[in-house]
Amino acid sequence: xxxxDVINWDTYFMGLAHLSAKRSKDPxxxxxxxxxSEDRRIVGIGYNGFPNGCHDDLFPWEKxxxxxxxxxxxxxxxxxxxxxxxxxxxxxxxxxxSLFPCNECAKAIIQSGIRHIVYESDKYAHTDSVKASKKMLxxxxxxxxxxxxxxxxxxxxxxx
Length: 160
What we know:
Blueprint: H1 9-21, E1 32-36, E2 42-47, H2 78-84, E3 94-99, H3 103-112, E4 116-121, H4 128-139, E5 143-146
Parallel strand pairs: 3-4, 4-5
Antiparallel strand pairs: 1-2, 1-3
Helix pairs in contact: 3-4
């Protein structure tokens, strides 16, 4: 008899996005993304953080102030990191992301060939960035699926 409490694919991949988000050192918003091929193989994973070689002790995490004194000009979003970390062509893939993509990430998603976005939170839906994102994604025919539940992961990992 098989195990009765097996999680579905959406929960599995969104759980991996949440686990990836735990690598982000952003004190206000940790976001993770996982790109999955049509045959459910993980082909990219990422979280929001600074580019390689830009040490997180040398760049700001602030949300307010002079633009160059905030995190915004420096942080690479989870979606873009997942695309840049991908191991193959992304045409036809699905991206699982814990927070709806901004307009800059939407452009990268469209250009990469990803055809489906599964997301959890849309807390910035009221912003111009997300409004522009949705306009581009709709025009490009990208399928959007909002999970009707929040994926919870319980980490009981110890440091080795």
